[in-house]
Each structure stands twice: as structure tokens, then as C-alpha cells.
Amino acid sequence: MRSVSIIGIGCTKFGEHWEKSFRQLIAEAGIEAILSAGVEGKDIEALYGGSMASGRFIGQEHIGALIADQLGLNPIAATRVENACASGGTALRSGYMAIKSGEYDVVAVGGVEKMTDVGVEQAAIALGGAGDQETELFHGASFPALYALMARAHMTEFGTTEEQMAMCSVQAHKNGMLNPKSQFHREITVEDVMRSSYIASPLKLLDCSPITDGAAAVILCETEKAKKICEQPIEIIASTQASDTLALASRKSLTEMAATKKAALDAYKQAGIEAKDIDVVELHDCFSIANILAIEGLEFFKKGKGGKAVEEGKTALNSEIPVNPSGGLKCGHPVGATGIKQAVEITEQLMGKANKRQVKDAKIGMAHNVGGSGATAIVHILRKA
Amino acid sequence: MRSVSIIGIGCTKFGEHWEKSFRQLIAEAGIEAILSAGVEGKDIEALYGGSMASGRFIGQEHIGALIADQLGLNPIAATRVENACASGGTALRSGYMAIKSGEYDVVAVGGVEKMTDVGVEQAAIALGGAGDQETELFHGASFPALYALMARAHMTEFGTTEEQMAMCSVQAHKNGMLNPKSQFHREITVEDVMRSSYIASPLKLLDCSPITDGAAAVILCETEKAKKICEQPIEIIASTQASDTLALASRKSLTEMAATKKAALDAYKQAGIEAKDIDVVELHDCFSIANILAIEGLEFFKKGKGGKAVEEGKTALNSEIPVNPSGGLKCGHPVGATGIKQAVEITEQLMGKANKRQVKDAKIGMAHNVGGSGATAIVHILRKA
Lengths: 385, 385
Prior knowledge:
2 copies of one chain form a homodimer.
Chain A: E1 4-11, H1 22-37, E2 46-50, H2 54-58, H3 63-70, E3 77-82, H4 87-100, E4 106-114, H5 120-128, H6 143-158, H7 162-176, H8 190-195, E5 198-200, E6 203-204, E7 213-222, H9 223-229, E8 234-243, H10 258-271, E9 280-282, H11 288-297, H12 306-311, H13 335-351, E10 364-371, E11 376-384
Parallel strand pairs in A: 2-3, 2-4, 9-10
Antiparallel strand pairs in A: 1-7, 1-8, 4-7, 5-6, 8-11, 10-11
Helix pairs in contact in A: 4-13, 7-11
């Protein structure tokens, strides 16, 4: 069976890019990834691009062809994949399978979103297309509202507190301070979060990830070949994906992300490891409650114990399980780019190149990307090849 | 190397479905495909759905998860792919590679578009997202305008006539009469086409494919397994994809589709055959000139000779190369579904189940799907396994 490794990475600064377009952002990340891989454009045989709602955000579909064109990679096969906020993770998994299939040896995968060119209301409507348009968004259930329902259920069922959720954001901003590409470089306190405006009770402004422009890219290579052209290839030792109902109302439970759970269990099995073997994780914290749901669903902590674990500092840098050293989605969430940016961060961590936010002796890392309110989950586990 | 075959097919009627929604259409096609494959939902391990602009047409992204949900297939991996009008072909190729990779044995692939829920102007803008939004659509270059430029160049360079283009539409409608799922059941004459309103000169209304609602699905299976569960598996003996510049203005030639040419040559090589070995083809005739460009690009006729070949009836049913027995895109083009519907038609032809439009002794068939004005091309060659 062929194995797949990451040999190059690139990522733009996350933020409000008023002077850079969608195509400039993905070109910047893509070129950085190609240069860092030590390959040339002509070595790349196919391309996958993740973008959630480019049609709504910039009036442009056909993103795969656009990226190939921008990077001068024609006539290679170029494809856009879309699984809402898990579009980046999907691009990574698509590239992984394309190499495993034997069709290609070297594949570029990228993710990009330019979200600030439309107003906040239009952005919220576009993002609402990740849930069930007919039974949720049409009736006013925006994404903060859906996650607020999950937060309220978690509070009721397990006694999770608004302060514990606030601590997720505090920790994210603390890590973001150490990441030059973070959208925010400002420490916040639990009081700051508690005093911020309610968006959808119990979630407040500082419980939510922001609207962000940004792009990220990685170069994948068949592992035997990777070892010949790269000093430190990072091998993908598990790639898994699962789905759940699109609408929250159809779920058996509001306090468990079934797709995350299944993708995680499948990934541990595929890699032949357990949750405790993961040294660092980038997980999908689009809202503070999503952080808690993820650390439980990924089995780092028992169901219902996530809030307490965050409160006790067990997810801080160089603690029991370092969560989101990059600052996570809380410090920038250009939806289509997020899943790739997670892989970029884990790759840097395993290469020992994460500078001030380096997790000591990180040998095995995980990236966890969620689409919508949990209808898609994608997990990758990485290790030095 | 693992081989992949089609074991089940499904397709809705193409047309204006005022009483059926996006999700009802894909469920109808999906269930028909599963039933015809003789498998059960639980046998399906992953799903790829092609849809071009669901965000713009129905306010819904995250189409992979939606389809899995509608068909009761959770928690399988479900992914949307988008390559403009080649989204269906991309879904087929994605499913093909997923099985080749060894990750799955049985994969469902579908395509769907619900285009009539927005007005014609909004639909034209959404479709314009398949080209270069910044340098084309923004300045008013709609899709008929882009293909009109290609038509005018072909007329100037090779003497192709408006009447020859009209004959493409006449032939399409003639075939469509034999297909119960065609959007149109009305024979037209060259005079009808010539008298229809100009949309973008030299293209007239009857040179253009319509706005259509519809869905199609196929079930893919690893070939050895397919032979055990299906009487007549249809093997995919080539699957290829290529890209070209997004904008027409960046191309070297307006009279040759470079991506089609490359995908076709790669496909013939992969299958170990030549153009003359193809018994029946479903090709991407979004406009009459696209038909002529395709029969030249796929090497059925020499460059510049396509118009003459159509005029001489060489692309009619049971002639030199039977083109679009289904009626093609001219008889219905729900963009995301088109690439899958082409595979459905070729599968029926090779199974000998195409009834009145059956091509005699069809042994090898081709499906050719184009995205935008040619920035993506995908070719599949099928044969009885």
C-alpha cells in the first residue's frame, strides 16, 4: 500500500485582506508551499482546492481551474472540493487518496476563502448554507444559534459553564499571540469574554470565530519519493472522514458529535495508536463549545468532562494535550482554508519549526476539521516519516 | 492495479421541476441507482456529489452531507466536488480514484442541479461563475458570449457556417425524441434554429442548451467484486482530466479546446485504443459550436472539419460516430448532473438497454464533460467488463 507525506507548506497571514484578492491569497500560499517543498511547478501532477462558498463570497465557482491558472500549473487536473468548513480537510484527503490510487505521485492541495468582500449579514447567510437551508437557516437559525443549542444542552446535561467556554477563547488568544499569522494578537480574559455581547445565548462575541480572509497550501508526495527530495517528510498515517445528519434536529444527541467520534476512532485504528499517543492537535473550534465537544469526541477527555479539563489548563501549550497552538479557528477561520492551515501547523510542529509555540518533543499530531454543525468530520494523523 | 466498474444507474427526467426540490431530485436518482445495482444502502462506503452552484441556486452548500442524509447513508464519507459544468464528471472520477486507492470497494456518485428556482438573469450570473468572474462576467461576457467568440473564430478560420451549427441542434432534438428523460420532445429544423432569436451572435436561442432541473447517479464497484454481484458490470477503462486557463483571453487558440484534447489523448493511451474504436460518445454540447469543437478535440474528425462532418450526417445515430444519443446537453443541462447523466447513457448503451436510441453493437463508449469555456475537461471510456 502506498503511503503519502507532506513535503511543503504555505500559509498567508489570516485577517481582513482589503488589498489582496481571493486569487492573490491562494497564489501566495501555493507558491510558498511549492518553494518550501523544493519541487518545481512542473513536478506537480494534480491539484485539489477547498473553498466553501466562493460563489456567494466572490461570485466565482470553478476554483480548481482558477488555482491551476493562477499558479501556472495548466494543464494538470484541478478540482475544487466543498464540504462547508471542512473543505480544506477534504482537499487534503482528496490529495491523499489521489496519490494512494497510484494516479499521481505529487499533488498540491490548498484551501482559500475571501469572506470580507461581502457584508457581515451576507457572510452569515453564506455560512448558513453549511447547515440545513430549508429547516434551519430559512427560519433564522444562523450558525451561532445552532452551536448555542449545543452549548445549552451541554450545560444542562453536564454542568458545563459559560466561564469554562470562555476559557477556551482565552487559551486560543494566548496561543495566537505566539503565531505571527494569527488574525488576533491580543490577550483576553474570562471577564472580557463574559462581558462581550451575546450573539446567541449562551454564546457571546468572544466565543465565536471571526470572519477571515486567508489561504493555505501543502504539497503531498508518495512517501518513498518524498524521502528522496525532502529532509523531513511528514507522513499521513491516518486519513478518515464521516458524516452525520445535515440538520441538528435530526441528531440523536446535541452533546456528542457523532461524525467526529467515528472519524477519530477510525483514525486511531488506522494509525494503530490511541488518543493518549497524540502529542499535539489542531481541532475545529469554530465556537468555544465546539472546542469542548471536540476534545471529548476525539477521546482526549471523557464525555461531559471537557469543560472541566479546559478550566484545569489541560489543553494549554505543553500540558496534557496541547490544543490549537496556532490559536485555532478562534484566531482566524477563512472557512475553506482552515483544514489546510491545521495541517500546516501540525507539520511545523512535527518538523520542530513552530518557534515560540513549539510543543516539546511533538512526534504525532492530529488535524480535526468539521463541516457545518457536525455533518462532516475529517481527521488526519501525522508523524515524521 | 485495481479496476473500477459501474454496476447501477439512475436518472430523473430532465426539465422544469416545479414540484420537486433539489433534495428530492437527487434522492430519486440515487435510489434508482442503488436499486438497479442490486446492493443495499449499507453496502455503500462513500459518496461523491457534483453540483456547480447550489449556493447561488438554492442557498445550500455542504451537498455531500445533504445527499448522504437524504439517502439515509450516514455515517459514510460524503463529499461535494465542483468543477463548474464538469462537476458530474469530476464526481465520477473522484469515486473512481477512491476505489482505486483501496480505501473503498463500493462508492455512490451523483450529480444534481436545481436551476429554475431563480430567475433567468440570476441563473446566467451563477453560470458566469464558471468562467473568469473578474475579466469576463463582471464586464458582461456571459456564457453564450464566450462560446459566440469561439464560434465566430471557427467560422473565420475554417469556414464553418451557422447552418452547420444549427444541424447540431437539429440532430440533438431528433435523438432527444427517442429519450423519455429528455427535456424536449420536439423535432426542429435548420430553419427553426436560423429563425430563433440571437442570444450572442452567431449563436441563437436554439444553438444553446437550456436551464434545467435534474439529477443522475451511478454506483461504482471494484471490478472483481462487481462481477460477483452484477450480471453486466461496465468497466471504466480510462478516466482522465486536464485544465486550461480560466479566461478565454489567455488561450493560445479560440478554435481548439486544449484541455479536451489532452484529456482525450491521455484517455486513448490509458485504454490502449484510438478514436476510431469508440462506438458511441456523449459529449459536452452546451452550445452547438461546443459540439463541433468536441468532435474535433476528441479526434473523431480533423480540426476544422467538424462542421462539415455534422452536415454530412456523420454524427447521427448509427452513423460514423453516434454523438449524444440521449439528446445531449441541448436536450437538458442541469449542470452538476450532466457528467453523470452522460455516464448513465453510455452505460445503458453498452448494456444494450437504450431502446429506440440504441447504437447497434456498441462495445466501447465515451463520456466527455467540460467545465466553463473549457478550463476543465474530463474524459471517461467505458467497456463491458
